[in-house]
Amino acid sequence: MKERERRVLLTSLPSISTEVLQKLTFDLKVNAPLAVPFDYSRLPTQVPAYIEVNGSLISIYERKTRVLLKLANKAVGKEEEEINKPISIYIQWSSGSTYNNMGRPPCCDKLGVKKGPWTPEEDITLVSYIQDHGPGNWRAIPTTTGLKRCSKSCRLRWTNYLRPGIKRGNFTDYEEKLIIHLQALLGNRWAAIAAYLPERTDNDIKNYWNTHLRKKISKAQELSNYESNSKGQWERRLQTDINMAKQALSDALSLEKPICDSTESKNSSGYSSAIYASSAENISKLLKGWVKKCSVSNTSDQACSASSTGGTTTTTSFATNLLPEASETSLFYGESKPSIEVSTPFSMLETWLFDESTVDQQLGQDDLLDVSLVDTYHDLF
DNA sequence: AAAATTACCAACCGCCATACG
DNA sequence: CCGTATGGCGGTTGGTAATTT
């Protein structure tokens, strides 16, 4: 590190949030012991490349606790067994430094708009503004704050990284299964999926899908190809369910079409709402709530399409949200964004994915979702 | 030990829907 | 009604770290 313009000791390592950044800005050079181990996943990723442990300067590039602790121990010459003793940790960076060199480098500087990784100073500026004015009105941020970033970049930085409540680090088994379920249900509609994982951003979910789950599933599919018997059984069952679901949905929609017609606009395939569900009963049950909601509102367009514009932080009931979402995209047949096609052999996935005991266990310790959602989730599968 | 490959993920791009004048 | 600006979303990129060869 060339300079130590900023230096702060955090008594804990919180997620990157308003108060942290404020602390970094206004409450520098505080000295107090930090108990370790701490949850390094709560440290903002790729922040300050250097950390000071009991007077020794070390660099960090990883956000995993064990890595940091290893480095910390190395720096203070302790063995891992002793890491539970309180030590002092400083986090620091130079004012001109960037978080790291990851991500796409600035490719063009048109009109003085900066691109590429955000600096800590930019983050502070952005968060300070949002603290005062709240999120939204992104176009005002560059002009008001002097940030040389486009409004789009500001919004992205906030929603994907800076806003409080973002959970980072490894996905739990429960989250993983939920993502797979929702992906099968909703397709690659990451924002909609993220609505059911409030602590995860759509970008994170998308990345996780692309880097982990997609491969996992395709591997499982390959293996499943060897299990022709169980495969046939499962597919027949699924096919039956889908046919029944389609029929139920078709009936219901034909009754309510004048009210909720707008939701059909995207569906020319004939399967406006092929829902992934275990029975037509579930479909009907969910549909009932949705149709009711549509009927209550005179402005049917709003009622029926409201959830499709849902952001990542809004929490709506599964039943009211699910169907409008699902109705826009055919999930198994003939759509431009097929997810796990109906032809997917699920036999291998089935035991792993539908292992409800795991979900139940996780639910007890990991209160990610409200009960109603999980109930419905269980109903569905 | 070095080279090659893979994994990761922040941040970009382009498209679309909506708001606004 | 029309054109433009903006917000939101999904797909993609590409530099570095980690892992494998």
Automatic annotation (TrEMBL):
PROSITE patterns xrefs: HTH_MYB, MYB_LIKE
GO CC field: nucleus
InterPro entries: Homeodomain-like_sf, Myb_dom, Myb_TF_plants, SANT/Myb
Pfam families (UniProt xref): Myb_DNA-binding
Places the protein is found: Nucleus
Keyword check for Transcription: yes
Sequence ranges assigned to domain HTH myb-type in this UniProt record: 110-162, 163-217
UniProtKB keywords: DNA-binding, Nucleus, Repeat, Transcription, Transcription regulation
Main location, first listed in the record: nucleus
Cleavable signal peptide: none
Occurrences of domain Myb-like (ranges): 110-162, 163-213
Protein name, as recorded: Uncharacterized protein
Organism per entry: Dioscorea zingiberensis
